[in-house]
């Protein structure tokens, strides 16, 4: 059967860039982008899907004879704390709907995005191993632990081929920050390019694991294309690009904008970050399916500033 890929949550930070990468790889006619709302810059096939509605997912899967699903819709850590039960309902219900549809229609492969938010106080903060104890402190983190375990359950019980990555904070220029604790590391570049002072909601020494969007999207496609027998972890794989603190990113930005100003006003997001790893051990992903990051803080900064400058110049 021809490959037909459904991307749920295609308007989000990863969804946007992943949809484009999949279109380039498989052809526009094979990728069905979907989200709760149609986006302005939709380019290719797009279907409005509210993923809490299982019948709507089924309809699209049947209409396009879908063979793979990437399920990216979720409410992130900081936003999730505003409405814990609503977040639980959306994050978990949409995932269970996707799993059920995948089971009923024999979907060949499914991608599930987990997060470093699955870790809490029970895990080592430095070089956190893949199989560390999981006791998350946010509803988002709890929903991701739950989602990983459902993924493994559907794999064992029904033989579904589900693959998953625990994303660290993702840095990209294609979308504005969307409710995450790591999003300061996107916002900071916008302020630098606009020559504005940046007020950081984390303390200057709060190191967190991060990854550039190109590396995150490449990892996603690589794990999905790896031979099934090389996927040994059926909950989720740790991956990391680099780890840095607000102070370190600010000092890298000052290499290009020497007058860049930053101050620190930690808020509730500091408490979220306190529970998360400072750095991640991704040796299992490296060993099992060949994961290798390409971007360091220097190349991320250089790319972010170049791309954002071009975007802002176009809107002037
Ligand atoms: C967030 O900050 O909530 C996300 C994540 C680490 O999953 N970027």
Indicate the topology.
Layout: E1 5-8, H1 13-26, E2 31-35, E3 45-48, H2 54-64, E4 68-71, H3 77-80, H4 84-104, E5 109-115, H5 139-158, E6 162-167, E7 169-171, H6 184-193, E8 198-200, E9 208-212, H7 213-225, E10 237-238, E11 242-244, H8 246-254, E12 262-264, H9 268-274, H10 283-289, H11 297-315
Parallel strand pairs: 1-2, 1-4, 2-3, 4-5, 5-6, 6-10, 7-9, 8-12
Antiparallel strand pairs: 9-11
Report on this structure:
Residues 5-239 form the NAD-dependent epimerase/dehydratase domain. GO terms for molecular function: L-threonine 3-dehydrogenase activity. Belongs to the NAD(P)-dependent epimerase/dehydratase family. Pfam families: Epimerase. It comes from Flavivirga rizhaonensis. With 316 residues, this protein is α/β, with parallel strands linked by helices. The protein folds into 2 domains: 5-169 and 212-238, Rossmann fold, CATH 3.40.50; 171-209 and 241-279 and 294-315, UDP-galactose 4-epimerase, domain 1, CATH 3.90.25. Helices cover 43% and strands 16% of the residues. The protein is built from 11 helices and 12 strands. It has helices at residues 13-26, 54-64, 77-80, 84-104, 139-158, 184-193, 213-225, 246-254, 268-274, 283-289, 297-315, and strands at residues 5-8, 31-35, 45-48, 68-71, 109-115, 162-167, 169-171, 198-200, 208-212, 237-238, 242-244, 262-264. A 7-stranded parallel β-sheet has the order 3-2-1-4-5-6-10, sandwiched between helices. Helix 4 runs parallel beside helix 5 (139-158) and helix 6 packs across helix 11. The longest helix has 21 residues, at 84-104. Residues 76-77, 115-117, 140, 167, 169, 180-182 line the site of 2-amino-3-ketobutyric acid.
């Amino acid at each position: 059967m021809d490959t037909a890929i459904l991307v749920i949550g295609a308007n989000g930070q990863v969804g946007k860039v992943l949809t484009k990468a999949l279109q380039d790889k498989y052809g526009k006619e094979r990728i069905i982008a979907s989200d709760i709302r149609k986006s302005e810059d939709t380019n290719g096939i797009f279907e409005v899907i509210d993923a809490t509605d299982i019948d709507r997912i089924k309809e699209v899967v049947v209409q396009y004879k879908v063979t793979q699903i990437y399920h990216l819709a979720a409410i992130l850590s900081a936003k999730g704390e505003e409405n814990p039960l609503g977040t639980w309902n959306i994050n978990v219900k949409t995932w269970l709907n996707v799993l059920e549809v995948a089971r009923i229609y024999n979907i060949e492969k499914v991608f599930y995005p987990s997060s470093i938010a699955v870790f809490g106080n029970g895990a080592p903060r430095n070089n956190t191993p893949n199989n560390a104890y999981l006791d998350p402190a946010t509803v988002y983190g709890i929903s991701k632990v739950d989602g990983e375990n459902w993924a493994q359950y559907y794999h064992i019980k029904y033989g579904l081929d589900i693959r998953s990555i625990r994303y660290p904070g993702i840095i990209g220029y294609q979308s504005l920050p969307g409710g995450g604790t790591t999003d300061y590391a996107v916002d900071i570049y916008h302020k630098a390019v606009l020559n504005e002072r940046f007020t950081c909601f984390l303390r200057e020494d709060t190191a967190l694991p991060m990854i550039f969007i190109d590396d995150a999207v490449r990892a996603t496609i690589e794990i999905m294309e790896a031979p099934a027998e090389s996927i040994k972890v059926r909950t989720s794989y740790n991956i990391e690009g680099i780890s840095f603190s607000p102070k370190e990113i600010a000092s890298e930005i000052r290499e290009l904008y020497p007058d860049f100003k930053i101050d620190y006003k930690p808020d509730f997001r500091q408490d979220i970050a306190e529970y998360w790893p400072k750095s991640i051990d991704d040796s299992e992903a490296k060993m099992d399916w060949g994961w290798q990051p390409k971007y360091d803080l220097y190349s991320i900064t250089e790319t972010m500033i170049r791309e954002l400058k071009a975007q802002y110049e176009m809107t002037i």
